[in-house]
UniProtKB/TrEMBL annotation, chains A, B, C, D:
Name of this chain's protein: Xylose isomerase
Cellular location(s): Cytoplasm
Residues the entry annotates as binding Mg(2+) 2: E270, H273, D309, D311
Any single biological process term in GO: D-xylose metabolic process
EC number: 5.3.1.5
PROSITE patterns: XYLOSE_ISOMERASE (PS51415)
NCBIfam families (alphabetical): PRK05474.1 (NF003998), xylose_isom_A (TIGR02630)
Active site positions: H103, D106
Cofactor note: Binds 2 magnesium ions per subunit.
Catalysed conversion reaction: alpha-D-xylose = alpha-D-xylulofuranose
Domain of life from the UniProt record: Bacteria
Species of provenance: Consotaella salsifontis
């Protein structure tokens, strides 16, 4: 292995066991350990995110660049992009990362025209292709950035100007072409500008129809080119806009129903977006499974006391345990995975910080996986839940749910009932959870 | 007119004109004034809410009763309920109120059994029926309280115990029967306990299915008895539970699609519930119209800095103007109206406070109606919005929206485009709005 | 030991070791285990709260009583109060609880006059006194409820009516007298109504002065009667009122400075109140120590996604570890302790739920204590923090902080400087924390 | 008047009367109109903010520059700074703006060293000096930007590195020197990085002491150079950091008390920062007056549904009325004014948008001023408030507040009292307010 001089390390991070105090050693992530019949690596399907780790310079709304990465300063954009790709694949190797994900503009510079931008993208994709011949790292998903350039300030698919819509089509076509070429497992759409800043200037209904059309065209194209993975919408309620149309899982579900997209489109759920919408991460994941649209995970965490998307590395073992418990219950990921849509804090300016953050978060998730495995084996939660609803598994309950009873019939039966409440046992179950995490 | 001794006033509140300083005189609400071809009273369709005004004793989570209403203390529950009904209809008359709304348990005491509770309800309904023969006040909607009694602590339709589901069927049947008997224009379902306190003890998917079944049974029954009004779901994201299934308009839409209820069920939108879900009132109303499920309004306001349902009387003319602008744009209410799901503060203990609050809020809404009328006449907002989207009314835009273009076609066209952003003009439009309010 | 028939258990909960799966056995709380030179029990100083466990009936803003405790229903209030006291001391014994805390109205019924209320209080205090002769359970603190009765709806000390202020004085004098009689370690003031519902009717400055006077009178009285413990203010930003004057630790500090109360008054910090004010629990505790006003803890937790005071049992080991880390760093509690200002969920209606909740939370805190002990031994956080600020321990840094440098001098020195940022290492430290919890 | 070609307008905006529909004409802001004995312009003391209007390129966390201002692109930073100054003074003239405010880095480019940065600043200050000889526009305040450069990523005064503290001293000395030279009325400190990202790496107490020292040095220097205006701290609870030390008015008050700065330091209150801290704007202003630290206003507005600082132009007449009511009650501004710390939305890309936003907001504030004048004349709020507290103006109330009563004395008196609650009349007062706005 030959890595660039960016990282002060030449060898991949290894599993060292729970007793290790090395921030660059895994304590729980033991990739070949079997969990419910599958290797841990194949369960967790971790993915590195190109944007946060390699293209974000460390700025925030009140301050500029802090990272000063060498590939961010220079005269030749394509040369810098190649340098960035080298560092990225070095990191993938050092972290033994099974997947990565990228936006078109993360990997290649925007050109003076759409044509030139696409050419730049394809130049880098070719480099990726070569690197991936020898690297273990696969593409979890690709996507197009339809929000950073000023042309998208009023939306991409939902722009009042149909030419902007067209431009977005051009970008998204190139991005899914690239994703297919690199054997990406999914294609993601995050509608960061598909929303509004003020209703005073907005035709909400028209914009929803535009967005529905855009997705439908993309789905048609996906079939045409034989891209096998699903299209994933990533819900987010707000930021950058005041209000985004893909607010949360429930909203996306209704949208997919309305525009007849349920067969081809699923969701990519992010923790930080969940809490910005007022939901727990667990809620969004469960709801997506309940509605049949679970796709993939952007693994990160927000700050419960802040009202914006901090995209911090996930470190909360309890939350990750509930996440893995839900995913394992449903048989594990299919095309999805756990993409680190997480950025190191802007003060974490050492190259090592980038590795340490991934290692700590991978370990926290692995620990959650192991806890979830044990909870399922013990039926620690599933048992009490099944017992709580047992009445619905009896004849009358089944008949009601099957539509075999009318309101009058049930109302008539109720006249003789005086149902008594039973304990919800919340504190007991919270104590049980604490036994596993 | 003969009113009880509760209110210190014998004559209805009247329109006195903008210059009036009488808190018991209308400054803008001039019921017979014509607005876009309809009487103001017929536009606004105000409704008094039985619960807040007559059954809430003034308690909050840290304090008990403050109002000490005479009809809340006594040995004979039915006698007290009759006394309450007298005061209620007095208030309706004093406010010249065109509608009212009630829950079953607001108007009649719960009995020792469901049978007795229904009997109590019917006894009061009979009294209402007589009063309504001479009163102008009609029933905007009826509903069943499926959240206060401890039997519903874990939900009604979504309860783990099918007997509780059955009990809820019994109550809801009696309530819609009563609503029909009183010629109610709508029937409302607020799922205050249809949610969860913790996911640890919850089967989310099963509960959604139970809720779908419950609504379907209610819709079938509505058709069977020939109840003409719509069923309205009132979205609320949380409180009393941690998370309610009818989170917001978008969520309810998806639910109605999923359980095939879109033909018969619409939404009753409350301002305070909108902001608890992270949406502006205007957003929820617009979205309901866009999705074809707008039904009615619970007119009140929350406190932007508090995280619970304060249900204050709406006083914000700007917000009410945007509300009426939206409603007028869509031709006004059909079966819906503006129900005062609002309570006077617990410190507002004088009987007059009850009248003053309604008068001030009715006036604010009337002022909003007049402002909206003028804005529509001037196309103050509609003009700039139409201009902003004009490109989509041209041939290519129309073709795209009509599904006549593939992604490749549009992407190909985009290669020659370099769309330039145009000003969103938000501050200009905010200034325009300030010209009208 | 003879316990009432309320709990289905006759023997105290015991330490059973980490492997136990008994919800009524301690896994970490091993009271005699030595931690940094002190018994675990003496470190944690747990206290049961009379109000949540014995006087709250399970209601919420949309629903009534769920618990149906036997001592809540009966004709003779004092007899019920005695029965309640029996159950309370049974619970203390079953949990081996070292402390408890109460409000005047929790333990004794309010009478028809202040005089009668005080007599009722004293009657129960006498019972407590006798029970405490044989029980190990001591009084952590007493307090007066100046918020539930309607006379306090507009505040107690901050009421616009000086007679209400006087009434509050009467109650608080009796409550501190009772606290002294029972050898309470502290006296607490929570200003639940010392705030406003609307600024429109409020003279904010005058109310602050009233509150300052009230506290000063209480401090004078405390000295006069020789009550040795501190007066503790419990900050809370809102709920029940829109805005409370004791918003958070920083606000209380400024208030104490302004009214010259810093010598005698400290703070009782609650987790749920901290997050309602936008702060982490850790922040409030650290700030109180930094400002020299740390007193005691109300141990509970809020729901990060809800905007009201849920007062749930603390179960988050990570948060409790940081709490104990801070407290241990400062040498542990003096008069303070960890009072369970926590209520079981209203669906947790079984008597066992009350025990299980306390056990699970005591265990979580004990686990936090053990983790904190280890972190301190390893200087896991203290080491990196000290290194980060090392520059300030050198001569020039010290001189600046000692006030020995003027702005011009330092500015002059700066002309030759080009300070380079150093990594904040947040993810590293988060990973370290995860090694201990 | 000769303006640059940036604005499509050569003549100042004029008062045109309420009937005007010109977005570039004032409807209420009639600068010479007398209000309570003073010209409207002298009451409102509007100030333009250099940063938002001239240095912000329109970026947000997910998107880059939208404005493409000519002075933001070019090879010679000082030449661009001069061009920017020309446009700025053009805008001041077009808006007839009485004041402006700036940060050091807004007006002049940072150099390769502190020395060079100061030289650049002074070069532009010299240009300002000349322009101000003929312009009516005065300097409301100056300030130093101690948050954008990466050297401040971990704080300025609160940095773990004393060299960064020193650098901040160098910048702040130059900035207050410049402010004095330009006859600035105040000097402002906003501690955007004086906080923390995580407590794990933070010594909170030490940082507070550093901040206290920094302010003390600045106050000493202010006296030394004979700068007459106050130092103003601008509270903000969070953003960019997770938690800022100048959280809100109450926190700043306690800080000033602690470090003995109350004589020289006051607050500059911003609406958006108020609501991010959980307070209404009115609350923060009232509290600052009550505590004697009111200084100046950053006039803008946040979005009640968003958790970050949107800094929108203030348009809410009701809120502005309450603001002006409070300021008028206290005799109006002294050194302070109303600084437009507000930015046009990033989609408002036309030069006219900059003018229109200021005009609309100035008009809204002027309308608030006129409404407040009338309310005060009518004692619309002051009358009811005074009546509500009348009891405290009687002998016993006064004696209590004067410290002439002990707790026992008042408690004794209370034995004979049974105070009855009186209505808080909130809805009545809300209706009254609606009569004026
Ligand atoms: Co994401
Ligand atoms: Co995110
Ligand atoms: Co409602
Ligand atoms: Co409500
Ligand atoms: Co507490
Ligand atoms: Co609490
Ligand atoms: Co500001
Ligand atoms: Co701001």
């Amino acid at each position: 292995m030959t890595v660039t001089s960016f990282f002060n390390r030449q060898t991949p991070v290894k599993f060292e066991g729970e007793g290790s105090t090395d921030p660059l050693g895994f304590r729980f992530y033991d990739k070949d350990r079997m969990v419910m019949g599958k290797r841990m690596e194949d369960h967790l399907r971790f993915s590195a995110a190109y944007w946060h780790s390699f293209t974000w310079p460390g700025g925030d709304p009140f301050g500029g660049e802090t990272f000063n990465r060498p590939w961010m300063h220079g005269a030749d954009p394509l040369a810098l992009a190649r340098q960035k790709a080298d560092v990225a694949f070095d990191m993938f190797e050092l972290l033994d990362m099974p997947f990565f994900a990228f936006h078109d503009v993360d990997v290649a510079p925007e050109g003076a025209s759409l044509k030139e931008s696409i050419a730049n993208l394809n130049a880098i994709v070719e480099i990726f292709e070569k690197k991936m011949e020898t690297s273990k790292t696969k593409l979890l998903w690709g996507t197009a950035n339809l929000f950073s350039n000023r042309r998208f300030m009023a939306g991409a698919a939902t722009n009042p100007d149909p030419d902007v819509f067209a431009y977005a089509c051009g970008q998204v076509k190139a991005a899914i072409d690239a994703t297919k070429r690199l054997n990406g497992a999914n294609y993601v759409c995050w509608g960061g500008r598909e929303g509004y800043e003020t209703l005073l200037n907005t035709n909400l209904k028209r914009e929803l129809d535009q967005l529905g059309r855009f997705l439908s065209m993309l789905v048609d194209y996906k079939h045409k080119i034989g891209f096998n993975g699903p299209i994933l919408i990533e819900p987010k309620p707000k930021e950058p806009t005041k209000h985004q149309y893909d607010y949360d899982v429930a909203t996306v579900y209704g949208f997919l129903e309305r525009y007849d997209l349920l067969q081809d489109v699923k969701v990519n759920i992010e923790q930080n977006h969940a809490i910005l919408a007022g939901h727990s991460f667990d809620h969004e994941v469960r709801l997506a499974y309940a509605l049949g649209i679970f796709g993939s995970i952007d693994i990160n965490r927000g700050d419960d006391l802040l009202g914006w998307d901090t995209d911090q590395f996930a470190m909360n073992v309890g939350e990750l345990t509930l996440l893995m418990h839900e995913i394992l219950k449903h048989g594990g990921f299919t095309t999805g995975g756990m993409n680190f849509d997480a950025k190191i804090r802007r003060q974490s300016i050492d190259p090592d910080d980038l590795l340490i953050a991934h290692v700590a978060s991978m370990d926290a998730a692995a620990r959650g996986l192991l806890a979830a495995e044990k909870m399922l084996a013990d039926k620690a939660l599933e048992g009490p839940v099944a017992a709580r609803y047992a009445g619905w598994d009896e004849a009358e309950g089944k008949a009601v749910l099957a539509g075999e009873r009318s309101l009058e019939q049930v109302a008539e039966r109720a006249l003789g009932l005086n149902p008594q409440p039973r304990s919800g046992r919340q504190e007991y179950l919270e104590g049980v959870l604490n036994r596993y995490v």
